[in-house]
Design a protein that fits this description.
The chain is α+β, with helices and mostly antiparallel strands. It folds into 2 domains: about 10-95; about 110-340, BirA Bifunctional Protein, domain 2 (2-Layer Sandwich), CATH 3.30.930. It is built from 11 helices and 10 strands. The chain has helices spanning about 10-25, 30-40, 45-50, 55-95, 110-120, 135-140, 175-180, 225-240, 295-300, 315-320, 335-340, and strands at about 125, 135, 165-170, 190-200, 210-220, 245-255, 255-270, 275, 280-290, 305-310. The strands form 2 sheets. Strands 1, 4, 5, 6, 7, 8, 9 and 10 form an 8-stranded mixed sheet that branches. The protein is elongated. The mean pLDDT is about 90. Bound molecules: 3,4-dihydroxyphenylalanine.
């Protein structure tokens, strides 16, 4: 529709439409578009104003103020809107004005792993890793666990293939074998540790999960004894729990250590929380021993001595934070996790 100077009603219509668009626009881009189309250098109102010169004096007196009025009104509204947008932008980037939000916290499992890295690094241990999907050789064969060993039963192990050559690692002790293999041609002492996932087709109760983590460590040094192993583990526990821990070492059997021990920490349930306590009951927290000579011989170290240990990370965390059910650590109940963390 062609607008003419004789059409004041249509000017008003344009003005009203423009006001509506400006007020409702959600983006600075569409605001600039309206501005260019109406009052920009070759905008509609600008062009109409430019054409005023051709009109009679009487028409000029009428259309001049009318068009200038529209121009000023639109220009003021656009300025106000621009101001509004720029304030909103400021609010977005000015962190001081951000509304209070609930920011995340580090999970206690991650925090505990970080603490263990610090403890081990401080006493000169190297970190070693192996894959979660492991060769049966590293997980069982090389650890003196023959094919008919009960732990190799299908009920405990998740095999990856029918030929059972690969599995989901059932013990981080597999990393110990990878480590010994890597130094089989080198004559050097070793202080190393690993922390990683293990998987077992175990019963699913408050203290067992089909996936959990183990802390595994080894010291290969001439002359190490069970006495050193015991002293070392007491030091490790004290550093992790930041207090003295009453522990007990009970003779046990692992095919890859001789002698072997199970390690127990004294704990009890108090006010619904599992806590370390000298007058509590012994709770198993891991195994340890002197590495079997056949294993050291397998990796070209017939005259070496070494001790090793493997601990359940979640058990340690449960004892430290008073958690009765291992699944509380992994069921993603944010409030429950926060309460656990704050209770320390
Ligand atoms: N791998 C054993 C387990 O999962 C724990 C263990 C026992 C690890 C004795 C060791 C060890 O390194 O020496 O039950």
């Amino acid at each position: 529709m062609k607008l003419t100077y004789n059409d004041p009603e249509k000017y008003e219509l344009i003005q009203n439409q423009a006001i509506e668009i400006i007020q409702e626009t959600k983006s600075i881009q569409s605001l600039h578009k309206v501005k260019a189309e109406l009052i920009g250098e070759s905008g509609f109102i600008t062009n109409e104003l430019k054409g005023l010169g051709k009109l009679s004096l009487e028409e000029k007196k009428f259309f001049g103020p009318l068009l200038n009025g529209i121009k000023n009104k639109i220009s003021t509204l656009i300025k106000e809107k621009e101001e509004e947008f720029s304030q909103k932008n400021c609010e977005k980037t000015d962190f001081g004005l951000l509304p209070e939000t609930d920011i995340g916290l580090k999970h206690i499992v991650s925090e505990s792993i970080e603490l263990l890295h610090t403890i081990f690094n401080n006493i000169g241990f190297e970190f070693f890793e192996g894959p979660d999907i492991e060769k049966t050789y590293y997980n069982f064969d090389a650890l003196n666990m023959p094919e008919d060993h009960p732990a190799r039963d299908n009920n405990d192990t998740f095999y990856m293939s029918n030929d059972k050559s690969e599995l989901l690692r059932t013990q981080v002790t597999a990393v110990q074998i990878r480590l010994l293999e890597s130094i089989s041609r080198i004559n050097k002492d070793i202080r190393a540790y690993s922390i990683g996932n293990v998987f077992r087709n175990d019963s699913h109760d408050a203290t067992h999960s089909c996936q959990f983590q183990q802390i595994e460590g080894i010291i290969l040094e001439k002359g190490v004894t069970m006495q050193h192993l015991k002293g070392f583990l007491e030091y490790l526990l004290e550093s992790f729990f930041e207090r003295k821990v009453k522990v007990e070492f009970r003779p046990s059997f692992f095919p890859f250590t001789e002698p072997s021990c199970e390690v127990f920490a004294y704990a009890k349930v108090e006010n619904g929380k599992l806590i370390l306590s000298e007058d509590g009951e012994p709770l198993e927290i891991g195994g340890c021993g002197i590495i079997h000579p056949t294993i050291l011989e397998r990796f070209n170290k017939p005259n070496a001595q070494a001790f090793a240990f493997g601990m359940g990370l979640e058990r340690w965390i449960m004892l430290k934070y008073g958690i009765k059910n291992i699944h509380s650590l992994y069921n993603n109940q944010i409030n429950e996790l926060k309460n656990i963390k704050n209770s320390l």
